[in-house]
Amino acid sequence: MIDMLLPNATHVLTLDQTDGLRVEFDTGDIVHLRPSGNAPELRCYAESNVHNQAAKICTSCINRIEKSLK
């Protein structure tokens, strides 16, 4: 499951399920998946130390999840 969020990460530093699933990786990247509060959608938020990496993380994470559901 964690590989779907960020395949190049080797270790999970923190895991928080307070509002969806928020995972901090040893790469410094953070992925937060949560259900929308007002629509039937899954939302993805990401943080990264690398410029423009957060948007790429969200796109690839959602794509891997969608692919696994087919």
How would you characterize the overall build of this protein?
The protein is of the alpha+beta class and 70 residues long. It has one domain (2-69): 2-Layer Sandwich (TATA-Binding Protein), CATH 3.30.310.50. The chain has helices spanning 2-5, 53-69; strands at 12-16, 21-25, 30-35, 42-47. It has a four-stranded antiparallel sheet, with helices on one face. The model has no long low-confidence stretch (mean pLDDT 87).
Order of strands, main sheet, comes to 1-2-3-4
Give the N-to-C terminal Cα separation.
Answer: 16 Å
Order of helices and strands: HEEEEH
Low-confidence stretches: none
Question: Architecture, CATH level 2?
Answer: 2-Layer Sandwich
Instruction: Evaluate the radius of gyration.
Output: 12 Å
CATH top level is Alpha Beta
Quick one: overall form?
Answer: globular
Give a short synopsis of this structure.
The chain has helices at residues 2-5, 53-69, and strands at 12-16, 21-25, 30-35, 42-47. By secondary structure, it is an alpha+beta fold. The longest helix has 17 residues, at 53-69.
Indicate the topology.
Blueprint: H1 2-5, E1 12-16, E2 21-25, E3 30-35, E4 42-47, H2 53-69
Antiparallel strand pairs: 1-2, 2-3, 3-4
